[in-house]
Description:
heterodimer; A: three-stranded antiparallel β-sheet; B: seven-stranded mixed β-sheet; globular
Amino acid sequence: QSALTQPASVSGSPGQSITISCTGTSSDVGSYNLVSWYQHHPGKAPKLVLYEGSERPSGVSNRFSGSNSGNTASLTISGLQADDEAYYYCCSYAGSNTPWVFGTGTRVTVL
Amino acid sequence: QVLLQESGPGLVKPSQTLSLTCTVSGVSISSGDYYWSWIRQHPEKGLEWIGYIYYSGTTYYNPSLKSRLTISVDTFKSQISLKLSSVTAADTAMYYCARQYSTSYFDYWGQGALVTVSS
């Protein structure tokens, strides 16, 4: 099972919106509405920011939103803030063989 | 507050067994709704799901690691353990434990334990 494809880096100015794509296949992203997104500040524990495509866990800012279209999922961060600078990973359920596959990761830089 | 903390040797020799422990606090490891997973990240690369265990001892492993992998649980100590045998340099990675809800998501993670395989 190959990793999901994400852009290596995305940047934006404070207050702007950015979108990170996560492209898989019909065996993972395209088959299940089970894409989750994680924010990772190096040296800290990764943090769940979205699950099942667009659901936010309790305590996560509504500046984080998600969507799915075909084999591609997307994470949008609106009103970009300095603390949003981190790595972001998507993850999708991919069936019984290798159940969970992660994205390649995107470094978000706040200019 | 749910906390997961990985621990174990940071350096393992090739062909030996990598052993890590994840200590869980703030929540019962025996909660029926959750699995307990191990996930790793190779240097400069993405994340790889290793396997999970349910509090009853039921396991599910990544097929690519299954022949070398053992995950176990100690509910009394609130710990999950990982053993990966016959390691090579390709097993050098940051190893994370995480709480997993069904097939959906990993909602709590540890900070990770860096393991280097080298002679």
